[in-house]
Amino acid sequence: MHLRQPRYNVRRLSALLLSAAFWLAHLPAATAQTLDFDQCVATALRQNPDLSVSRAQLDQALAGLRQAQGSRLPRLTASVNATRTNDALNAFGIKLSQRNATFNDFGASQFTGPAALGVAPDNLNHPGSVNNFNTRLEAQLPLYTGGLIEGNIEQAQAYIRAAQHGDVAARQQVIFNVLQAYQGVHSARAFVSVAKQAEAAAAAQVKTIDSLVKGGVVVKSDLLSAQVRLEDVRIQLLQARNAEAAALDQLHLLLGLPLSEPLDVGAPVMPAAIPGSAAALRALALADNPKLKAMRDQLGASQAGVKAAKAGLYPQVGLMARQDWNDSKIGFSASSYTLGGSLSWTMFDGNVTRGAVDRASAKHAEQQARLVQAENGVALQVDDSRRKAEEAEFRLAARQLAVTSADAAANLVNKRYASGVATIAELLAAQAQQDKAHADVVAAQYDLAVQRASLKLAIGKLEPDQL
Protein backbone atom coordinates (compact mmCIF):
# COMPACT_ATOMS: atom_id res chain seq x y z
CA MET A 1 0.00 0.00 0.00
CA HIS A 2 1.45 3.36 -1.01
CA LEU A 3 0.63 6.59 0.77
CA ARG A 4 -0.05 9.50 -1.53
CA GLN A 5 2.26 12.41 -0.81
CA PRO A 6 0.50 15.74 -0.30
CA ARG A 7 0.94 18.09 -3.19
CA TYR A 8 1.72 21.72 -2.47
CA ASN A 9 1.29 24.72 -4.64
CA VAL A 10 4.96 25.69 -4.88
CA ARG A 11 4.24 29.14 -6.24
CA ARG A 12 1.72 29.90 -3.49
CA LEU A 13 4.13 28.66 -0.79
CA SER A 14 6.95 30.76 -2.20
CA ALA A 15 4.72 33.83 -2.23
CA LEU A 16 3.77 33.30 1.39
CA LEU A 17 7.39 32.92 2.43
CA LEU A 18 8.41 36.06 0.55
CA SER A 19 5.53 38.00 2.11
CA ALA A 20 6.49 36.84 5.62
CA ALA A 21 10.13 37.74 5.01
CA PHE A 22 9.09 41.18 3.80
CA TRP A 23 7.03 41.91 6.91
CA LEU A 24 9.69 40.56 9.25
CA ALA A 25 12.30 42.72 7.58
CA HIS A 26 10.16 45.79 8.05
CA LEU A 27 9.16 45.16 11.65
CA PRO A 28 10.53 47.94 13.90
CA ALA A 29 13.59 46.76 15.82
CA ALA A 30 13.58 47.03 19.59
CA THR A 31 15.12 50.40 20.32
CA ALA A 32 17.37 50.74 23.31
CA GLN A 33 16.29 53.16 26.00
CA THR A 34 18.95 55.86 26.30
CA LEU A 35 19.42 57.24 29.82
CA ASP A 36 21.87 59.95 30.81
CA PHE A 37 23.63 59.81 34.17
CA ASP A 38 20.98 61.82 36.06
CA GLN A 39 18.24 59.58 34.69
CA CYS A 40 20.20 56.46 35.66
CA VAL A 41 20.66 57.78 39.19
CA ALA A 42 16.96 58.69 39.50
CA THR A 43 15.95 55.22 38.29
CA ALA A 44 18.36 53.48 40.65
CA LEU A 45 17.24 55.53 43.64
CA ARG A 46 13.66 54.63 42.84
CA GLN A 47 14.13 50.92 42.19
CA ASN A 48 17.41 49.73 43.70
CA PRO A 49 16.77 46.95 46.29
CA ASP A 50 19.54 48.22 48.60
CA LEU A 51 17.55 51.39 49.21
CA SER A 52 14.42 49.36 49.88
CA VAL A 53 16.32 47.67 52.71
CA SER A 54 17.46 51.05 54.03
CA ARG A 55 13.92 52.45 53.99
CA ALA A 56 12.62 49.35 55.76
CA GLN A 57 15.21 49.88 58.51
CA LEU A 58 14.04 53.47 58.89
CA ASP A 59 10.43 52.29 59.17
CA GLN A 60 11.50 49.84 61.88
CA ALA A 61 13.17 52.64 63.83
CA LEU A 62 10.08 54.86 63.56
CA ALA A 63 7.90 52.01 64.78
CA GLY A 64 10.30 51.46 67.68
CA LEU A 65 9.90 55.09 68.72
CA ARG A 66 6.11 54.82 68.66
CA GLN A 67 6.38 51.69 70.77
CA ALA A 68 8.66 53.36 73.32
CA GLN A 69 6.55 56.51 73.56
CA GLY A 70 3.43 54.41 74.03
CA SER A 71 4.88 53.05 77.27
CA ARG A 72 4.25 56.44 78.90
CA LEU A 73 0.50 56.23 78.33
CA PRO A 74 -2.01 54.28 80.43
CA ARG A 75 -2.55 50.69 79.45
CA LEU A 76 -6.24 49.76 79.24
CA THR A 77 -7.27 46.11 79.08
CA ALA A 78 -10.72 44.51 78.86
CA SER A 79 -11.40 40.90 79.80
CA VAL A 80 -14.23 38.46 80.35
CA ASN A 81 -13.57 35.36 82.49
CA ALA A 82 -16.01 32.49 83.10
CA THR A 83 -15.70 30.35 86.26
CA ARG A 84 -17.60 27.35 87.68
CA THR A 85 -16.43 25.99 91.02
CA ASN A 86 -17.54 24.26 94.21
CA ASP A 87 -14.42 25.19 96.14
CA ALA A 88 -15.68 26.48 99.48
CA LEU A 89 -13.55 29.62 99.63
CA ASN A 90 -13.93 30.57 95.98
CA ALA A 91 -17.66 29.82 95.90
CA PHE A 92 -18.29 32.04 98.92
CA GLY A 93 -16.08 34.77 97.42
CA ILE A 94 -17.96 34.60 94.12
CA LYS A 95 -21.28 34.98 95.92
CA LEU A 96 -19.91 38.03 97.69
CA SER A 97 -18.67 39.47 94.38
CA GLN A 98 -22.10 38.90 92.86
CA ARG A 99 -23.74 40.55 95.93
CA ASN A 100 -25.71 37.32 96.44
CA ALA A 101 -24.38 36.04 99.78
CA THR A 102 -27.07 35.17 102.38
CA PHE A 103 -27.09 34.15 106.04
CA ASN A 104 -27.95 30.68 104.92
CA ASP A 105 -24.59 30.52 103.07
CA PHE A 106 -23.02 30.63 106.54
CA GLY A 107 -25.12 27.63 107.60
CA ALA A 108 -27.61 29.72 109.60
CA SER A 109 -30.26 27.00 109.31
CA GLN A 110 -28.07 24.64 111.32
CA PHE A 111 -27.50 27.14 114.14
CA THR A 112 -29.80 26.21 117.01
CA GLY A 113 -28.10 28.08 119.77
CA PRO A 114 -24.86 28.17 121.70
CA ALA A 115 -24.77 24.39 121.72
CA ALA A 116 -24.41 24.40 117.89
CA LEU A 117 -21.26 26.51 117.84
CA GLY A 118 -19.16 23.41 117.24
CA VAL A 119 -21.28 22.24 114.29
CA ALA A 120 -19.64 22.52 110.84
CA PRO A 121 -22.17 24.25 108.56
CA ASP A 122 -22.78 22.21 105.38
CA ASN A 123 -23.74 25.23 103.23
CA LEU A 124 -20.44 26.94 104.04
CA ASN A 125 -18.11 23.94 103.85
CA HIS A 126 -19.83 22.05 101.05
CA PRO A 127 -21.42 24.60 98.76
CA GLY A 128 -22.94 23.66 95.46
CA SER A 129 -21.33 24.62 92.16
CA VAL A 130 -21.36 28.35 91.45
CA ASN A 131 -21.10 30.05 88.04
CA ASN A 132 -19.51 33.45 87.58
CA PHE A 133 -18.86 35.72 84.62
CA ASN A 134 -16.37 38.45 85.48
CA THR A 135 -16.25 41.42 83.09
CA ARG A 136 -13.33 43.73 83.80
CA LEU A 137 -11.82 47.01 82.59
CA GLU A 138 -8.40 47.79 84.02
CA ALA A 139 -6.07 50.77 83.49
CA GLN A 140 -2.42 50.85 84.57
CA LEU A 141 -0.23 53.94 84.50
CA PRO A 142 3.52 53.87 85.19
CA LEU A 143 4.68 56.85 87.25
CA TYR A 144 8.35 56.01 87.68
CA THR A 145 10.27 53.20 85.99
CA GLY A 146 13.82 54.02 87.03
CA GLY A 147 14.57 55.53 83.61
CA LEU A 148 13.42 52.52 81.57
CA ILE A 149 10.88 54.40 79.45
CA GLU A 150 13.14 57.43 78.97
CA GLY A 151 16.05 55.18 78.00
CA ASN A 152 13.95 53.29 75.47
CA ILE A 153 12.70 56.53 73.92
CA GLU A 154 16.21 57.98 73.67
CA GLN A 155 17.43 54.74 72.13
CA ALA A 156 14.61 54.71 69.57
CA GLN A 157 15.26 58.34 68.62
CA ALA A 158 18.96 57.59 68.17
CA TYR A 159 18.12 54.61 65.98
CA ILE A 160 15.90 56.83 63.81
CA ARG A 161 18.72 59.32 63.29
CA ALA A 162 21.10 56.43 62.54
CA ALA A 163 18.65 54.98 60.02
CA GLN A 164 18.20 58.37 58.34
CA HIS A 165 21.96 58.83 57.99
CA GLY A 166 22.25 55.21 56.90
CA ASP A 167 19.69 55.90 54.19
CA VAL A 168 21.80 58.83 52.95
CA ALA A 169 24.90 56.61 53.00
CA ALA A 170 23.08 53.88 51.06
CA ARG A 171 21.84 56.47 48.56
CA GLN A 172 25.35 57.82 47.95
CA GLN A 173 26.77 54.31 47.64
CA VAL A 174 24.17 53.52 44.97
CA ILE A 175 25.13 56.72 43.11
CA PHE A 176 28.80 55.68 43.27
CA ASN A 177 27.99 52.19 41.96
CA VAL A 178 25.90 53.66 39.14
CA LEU A 179 28.74 56.01 38.20
CA GLN A 180 31.20 53.12 38.09
CA ALA A 181 28.94 51.06 35.83
CA TYR A 182 27.89 54.07 33.71
CA GLN A 183 31.47 55.17 33.12
CA GLY A 184 32.45 51.53 32.75
CA VAL A 185 30.24 51.35 29.66
CA HIS A 186 31.92 54.41 28.16
CA SER A 187 35.36 53.09 29.08
CA ALA A 188 34.64 49.69 27.52
CA ARG A 189 33.32 51.36 24.36
CA ALA A 190 36.46 53.47 24.18
CA PHE A 191 38.53 50.28 24.44
CA VAL A 192 36.37 48.79 21.68
CA SER A 193 37.09 51.82 19.50
CA VAL A 194 40.82 51.56 20.21
CA ALA A 195 40.76 47.83 19.46
CA LYS A 196 38.89 48.43 16.18
CA GLN A 197 41.47 50.98 15.10
CA ALA A 198 44.23 48.59 16.07
CA GLU A 199 42.51 45.79 14.12
CA ALA A 200 42.18 47.99 11.05
CA ALA A 201 45.82 49.03 11.29
CA ALA A 202 46.96 45.43 11.82
CA ALA A 203 44.87 44.19 8.89
CA ALA A 204 46.32 46.94 6.69
CA GLN A 205 49.81 45.92 7.79
CA VAL A 206 49.13 42.29 6.95
CA LYS A 207 47.93 43.31 3.50
CA THR A 208 50.96 45.58 2.94
CA ILE A 209 53.46 42.98 4.15
CA ASP A 210 51.77 40.30 2.03
CA SER A 211 52.35 42.48 -1.03
CA LEU A 212 55.96 43.03 0.00
CA VAL A 213 56.47 39.27 0.47
CA LYS A 214 55.06 38.58 -2.97
CA GLY A 215 57.38 41.22 -4.37
CA GLY A 216 60.34 39.62 -2.64
CA VAL A 217 61.04 42.69 -0.55
CA VAL A 218 60.60 41.06 2.89
CA VAL A 219 60.64 37.50 4.15
CA LYS A 220 57.53 35.48 4.91
CA SER A 221 58.27 35.41 8.64
CA ASP A 222 57.38 39.11 8.73
CA LEU A 223 53.97 38.28 7.33
CA LEU A 224 53.47 35.52 9.91
CA SER A 225 54.41 37.91 12.74
CA ALA A 226 51.95 40.50 11.43
CA GLN A 227 49.20 37.87 11.24
CA VAL A 228 49.89 36.79 14.84
CA ARG A 229 49.56 40.39 15.94
CA LEU A 230 46.30 40.74 14.03
CA GLU A 231 44.80 37.77 15.89
CA ASP A 232 45.98 39.19 19.21
CA VAL A 233 44.27 42.47 18.42
CA ARG A 234 41.07 40.64 17.51
CA ILE A 235 41.14 38.87 20.88
CA GLN A 236 41.51 42.26 22.58
CA LEU A 237 38.55 43.54 20.58
CA LEU A 238 36.43 40.59 21.72
CA GLN A 239 37.47 41.19 25.33
CA ALA A 240 36.56 44.87 25.04
CA ARG A 241 33.11 44.00 23.64
CA ASN A 242 32.55 41.53 26.48
CA ALA A 243 33.58 44.21 28.98
CA GLU A 244 31.02 46.58 27.43
CA ALA A 245 28.28 43.94 27.71
CA ALA A 246 29.25 43.21 31.33
CA ALA A 247 29.16 46.92 32.23
CA LEU A 248 25.70 47.26 30.69
CA ASP A 249 24.51 44.17 32.58
CA GLN A 250 25.79 45.66 35.83
CA LEU A 251 23.98 48.90 35.07
CA HIS A 252 20.78 46.93 34.42
CA LEU A 253 21.04 45.34 37.87
CA LEU A 254 21.71 48.66 39.60
CA LEU A 255 18.72 50.26 37.89
CA GLY A 256 16.47 47.32 38.73
CA LEU A 257 15.83 46.62 35.03
CA PRO A 258 15.62 43.15 33.44
CA LEU A 259 18.71 42.17 31.46
CA SER A 260 16.55 41.61 28.39
CA GLU A 261 15.48 45.27 28.27
CA PRO A 262 17.54 47.26 25.72
CA LEU A 263 19.53 50.00 27.41
CA ASP A 264 22.00 52.63 26.27
CA VAL A 265 23.81 55.43 28.08
CA GLY A 266 24.03 59.12 27.36
CA ALA A 267 27.03 61.41 27.57
CA PRO A 268 29.91 60.48 29.90
CA VAL A 269 30.20 62.18 33.27
CA MET A 270 33.29 63.54 34.99
CA PRO A 271 33.04 64.64 38.66
CA ALA A 272 34.68 67.96 39.42
CA ALA A 273 37.86 68.11 41.46
CA ILE A 274 37.48 68.87 45.17
CA PRO A 275 39.72 71.73 46.37
CA GLY A 276 41.32 71.70 49.78
CA SER A 277 44.28 70.32 51.67
CA ALA A 278 44.44 66.75 52.91
CA ALA A 279 43.79 67.86 56.49
CA ALA A 280 40.78 69.96 55.46
CA LEU A 281 39.28 67.11 53.45
CA ARG A 282 39.79 64.66 56.33
CA ALA A 283 38.07 67.05 58.74
CA LEU A 284 35.19 67.49 56.28
CA ALA A 285 34.80 63.73 55.93
CA LEU A 286 34.84 63.13 59.70
CA ALA A 287 32.12 65.74 60.11
CA ASP A 288 29.86 64.93 57.14
CA ASN A 289 30.34 61.28 56.20
CA PRO A 290 26.84 59.78 56.62
CA LYS A 291 28.16 56.37 57.68
CA LEU A 292 30.10 57.98 60.53
CA LYS A 293 27.03 60.01 61.50
CA ALA A 294 25.00 56.81 61.60
CA MET A 295 27.60 55.11 63.78
CA ARG A 296 27.67 58.07 66.18
CA ASP A 297 23.89 57.80 66.51
CA GLN A 298 24.25 54.06 67.10
CA LEU A 299 26.74 54.94 69.83
CA GLY A 300 24.10 57.20 71.38
CA ALA A 301 21.60 54.35 71.14
CA SER A 302 23.96 52.03 72.99
CA GLN A 303 24.40 54.67 75.71
CA ALA A 304 20.63 54.88 76.05
CA GLY A 305 20.60 51.08 76.27
CA VAL A 306 22.86 51.30 79.32
CA LYS A 307 20.38 53.74 80.89
CA ALA A 308 17.48 51.38 80.19
CA ALA A 309 19.38 48.43 81.66
CA LYS A 310 20.11 50.37 84.86
CA ALA A 311 16.38 50.93 85.39
CA GLY A 312 16.18 47.52 87.03
CA LEU A 313 18.32 48.82 89.89
CA TYR A 314 15.71 51.40 90.91
CA PRO A 315 12.16 51.19 92.29
CA GLN A 316 9.09 51.04 90.07
CA VAL A 317 5.99 53.10 90.90
CA GLY A 318 2.59 52.85 89.23
CA LEU A 319 -1.16 53.41 89.58
CA MET A 320 -4.03 51.05 88.84
CA ALA A 321 -7.79 51.54 88.35
CA ARG A 322 -10.16 48.61 87.81
CA GLN A 323 -13.90 48.22 87.21
CA ASP A 324 -15.48 44.75 87.67
CA TRP A 325 -18.91 43.25 86.98
CA ASN A 326 -19.72 39.77 88.34
CA ASP A 327 -22.82 37.77 87.47
CA SER A 328 -23.95 34.20 87.07
CA LYS A 329 -24.37 35.00 83.38
CA ILE A 330 -22.75 37.49 81.03
CA GLY A 331 -23.83 40.93 82.09
CA PHE A 332 -23.00 44.03 84.06
CA SER A 333 -24.51 43.27 87.47
CA ALA A 334 -22.72 43.61 90.81
CA SER A 335 -20.52 46.54 89.78
CA SER A 336 -17.37 47.24 91.82
CA TYR A 337 -14.23 49.29 91.43
CA THR A 338 -10.67 49.15 92.76
CA LEU A 339 -8.06 51.93 92.90
CA GLY A 340 -4.50 51.25 93.92
CA GLY A 341 -0.87 52.22 93.72
CA SER A 342 2.21 50.06 93.76
CA LEU A 343 5.83 50.49 94.73
CA SER A 344 8.21 47.66 93.98
CA TRP A 345 11.96 47.40 94.26
CA THR A 346 13.92 44.31 93.42
CA MET A 347 16.42 43.99 96.23
CA PHE A 348 18.17 40.86 94.96
CA ASP A 349 17.87 38.97 91.67
CA GLY A 350 21.08 36.97 91.58
CA ASN A 351 22.92 39.77 89.69
CA VAL A 352 20.62 39.39 86.68
CA THR A 353 20.12 43.15 86.41
CA ARG A 354 23.77 43.91 87.09
CA GLY A 355 24.73 41.46 84.35
CA ALA A 356 22.38 43.22 81.91
CA VAL A 357 23.99 46.57 82.79
CA ASP A 358 27.48 45.17 82.29
CA ARG A 359 26.44 43.68 78.97
CA ALA A 360 24.96 46.99 77.75
CA SER A 361 28.10 48.84 78.89
CA ALA A 362 30.31 46.38 77.01
CA LYS A 363 28.21 46.86 73.87
CA HIS A 364 28.63 50.62 74.23
CA ALA A 365 32.41 50.21 74.52
CA GLU A 366 32.41 47.99 71.44
CA GLN A 367 30.46 50.63 69.51
CA GLN A 368 32.99 53.28 70.55
CA ALA A 369 35.86 51.13 69.26
CA ARG A 370 34.05 50.49 65.97
CA LEU A 371 33.48 54.23 65.55
CA VAL A 372 37.18 55.00 66.04
CA GLN A 373 38.04 52.25 63.57
CA ALA A 374 35.57 53.61 61.02
CA GLU A 375 36.86 57.17 61.43
CA ASN A 376 40.39 55.98 60.74
CA GLY A 377 39.15 54.08 57.71
CA VAL A 378 37.35 57.12 56.29
CA ALA A 379 40.45 59.29 56.83
CA LEU A 380 42.50 56.68 54.97
CA GLN A 381 39.94 56.55 52.16
CA VAL A 382 40.07 60.35 51.82
CA ASP A 383 43.86 60.42 51.55
CA ASP A 384 43.99 57.41 49.21
CA SER A 385 41.25 58.72 46.88
CA ARG A 386 42.75 62.21 46.83
CA ARG A 387 46.21 60.88 45.90
CA LYS A 388 44.81 58.51 43.27
CA ALA A 389 42.67 61.28 41.77
CA GLU A 390 45.70 63.57 41.48
CA GLU A 391 47.70 60.71 40.01
CA ALA A 392 44.96 59.90 37.49
CA GLU A 393 44.70 63.56 36.50
CA PHE A 394 48.45 63.77 35.92
CA ARG A 395 48.44 60.42 34.12
CA LEU A 396 45.62 61.51 31.83
CA ALA A 397 47.48 64.64 30.75
CA ALA A 398 50.65 62.64 30.21
CA ARG A 399 48.89 59.89 28.26
CA GLN A 400 47.17 62.42 26.02
CA LEU A 401 50.60 63.81 25.11
CA ALA A 402 51.90 60.29 24.68
CA VAL A 403 49.16 59.50 22.17
CA THR A 404 50.37 62.27 19.87
CA SER A 405 53.94 61.05 20.11
CA ALA A 406 52.98 57.38 19.69
CA ASP A 407 50.87 58.14 16.59
CA ALA A 408 53.72 60.09 15.02
CA ALA A 409 56.26 57.39 15.91
CA ALA A 410 54.08 54.60 14.47
CA ASN A 411 53.61 56.60 11.25
CA LEU A 412 57.38 57.08 10.86
CA VAL A 413 58.16 53.41 11.53
CA ASN A 414 55.52 52.37 8.99
CA LYS A 415 57.24 54.49 6.36
CA ARG A 416 60.71 53.23 7.35
CA TYR A 417 59.51 49.62 7.18
CA ALA A 418 57.95 50.20 3.77
CA SER A 419 61.32 51.63 2.65
CA GLY A 420 63.13 48.58 4.01
CA VAL A 421 64.93 50.51 6.73
CA ALA A 422 63.04 49.28 9.82
CA THR A 423 62.51 45.67 10.90
CA ILE A 424 59.23 43.91 11.56
CA ALA A 425 60.06 43.90 15.26
CA GLU A 426 60.35 47.69 15.26
CA LEU A 427 57.09 48.00 13.34
CA LEU A 428 55.17 45.75 15.72
CA ALA A 429 56.70 47.47 18.75
CA ALA A 430 55.67 50.89 17.45
CA GLN A 431 52.14 49.70 16.76
CA ALA A 432 51.86 48.09 20.22
CA GLN A 433 53.11 51.31 21.80
CA GLN A 434 50.50 53.28 19.87
CA ASP A 435 47.69 50.91 20.95
CA LYS A 436 48.84 51.06 24.56
CA ALA A 437 48.96 54.86 24.53
CA HIS A 438 45.35 55.07 23.34
CA ALA A 439 44.22 52.45 25.86
CA ASP A 440 46.07 54.25 28.68
CA VAL A 441 44.13 57.44 27.96
CA VAL A 442 40.85 55.55 28.28
CA ALA A 443 41.96 53.90 31.54
CA ALA A 444 43.16 57.22 32.98
CA GLN A 445 39.84 58.90 32.18
CA TYR A 446 37.93 56.13 33.94
CA ASP A 447 40.25 56.15 36.96
CA LEU A 448 39.97 59.92 37.29
CA ALA A 449 36.15 59.80 37.31
CA VAL A 450 36.03 56.92 39.81
CA GLN A 451 38.62 58.35 42.22
CA ARG A 452 37.00 61.78 42.27
CA ALA A 453 33.66 60.11 42.96
CA SER A 454 35.28 57.98 45.67
CA LEU A 455 36.62 61.12 47.35
CA LYS A 456 33.17 62.75 47.22
CA LEU A 457 31.69 59.55 48.67
CA ALA A 458 34.19 59.64 51.56
CA ILE A 459 33.34 63.23 52.50
CA GLY A 460 29.58 62.64 52.07
CA LYS A 461 29.12 64.93 49.07
CA LEU A 462 28.28 62.44 46.32
CA GLU A 463 24.98 63.75 44.96
CA PRO A 464 24.05 64.29 41.29
CA ASP A 465 23.84 68.06 41.79
CA GLN A 466 27.27 68.08 43.48
CA LEU A 467 29.24 66.28 40.78
TrEMBL record:
Where found, per UniProt? Cell outer membrane
Recorded GO cellular component terms are:
cell outer membrane; efflux pump complex
Highest taxon of source: Bacteria
Any Pfam family the entry gives: OEP
Q: Which GO terms describe its molecular function?
A: efflux transmembrane transporter activity; porin activity
List the keywords (alphabetical).
Cell outer membrane, Membrane, Signal, Transmembrane, Transmembrane beta strand, Transport
Q: What is its main location?
A: membrane
Q: Which residues form the signal peptide?
A: 1-32
The UniProt similarity line reads: Belongs to the outer membrane factor (OMF) (TC 1.B.17) family.
Q: What is this protein called?
A: Transporter
Organism, scientific name: Sulfuriferula plumbiphila
